[in-house]
């Protein structure tokens, strides 16, 4: 009897414990599900944007000219239409050339955002064949036939033009004057 009574109390305690565990698990699940969404919505540096979203991201932008740095700073950016004197107005949001199915932040859009905020100019010819701009001059510095503005992200030259490549929060985007 003692044993039966003991088992019954233990069984009740076990069911109560199981219910508490279930409630705690559900609460934890809800909290975990909400946490990443909050971080992404704020675009915190160091976090990566969800692929395929155009949430503004903060990147470090460097423009390295032939005689030294022309710009270095952090910039908030997202994919958007840009306008250049030579190339006119076109999208620059990663959907260029069908590189991404929906808009994303890009290197050239980051350059454009920095240029607008810090009041400097850049220019680029539009190539319909690539659905992209060739960035030809920044702050009136151009390649002049013997150099070009190389685009790299985190130290690696992009394999596509600056409106086709996706940048993520915390990335380092560099436009570097590079001699042929
Ligand atoms: C030569 C060349 C260059 C030269 C062009 C100047 C010169 N003195 O010749 C330089 C070194 C400047 C160059 C730069 C870049 N290039 Co390039 N280049 C080529 C290459 C090998 C031949 C182009 C060519 O002469 N075509 C023949 C002429 C007759 O046709 P064209 O239309 O007049 O050619 C012009 C355009 O191609 C333009 N151009 C060259 N590269 C690029 C890149 C982009 C995005 C755009 C819009 C235009 C453009 O310059 C050419 C000369 O005026 C092609 C590969 C290929 N097989 O096409 C890659 C190619 C076009 N380049 C490419 C890339 C990625 C770049 C860069 C973005 C690399 C980088 N990360 O910096 C940069 C452009 C950066 C910027 N400032 O916007 C890619 C483009 C892919 C894409 N879908 O966007 C290609 C296809 C190579 C590849 N990865 O397969 N490039």
TrEMBL record:
On whether Transit peptide is a keyword of this UniProt record, the answer is: no
Q: Which Pfam families match?
A: DUF4430 (PF14478)
Q: What is this protein called?
A: DUF4430 domain-containing protein
| Keyword terms, alphabetized | Signal
User: Where is the Transcobalamin-like C-terminal domain positioned along the sequence?
Assistant: 135-178
Instruction: Answer whether the UniProt record assigns the keyword Hydrolase to this protein.
Output: no
Q: Which InterPro entries match?
A: Transcobalamin-like_C (IPR027954)
Which positions make up the signal peptide?
1-39
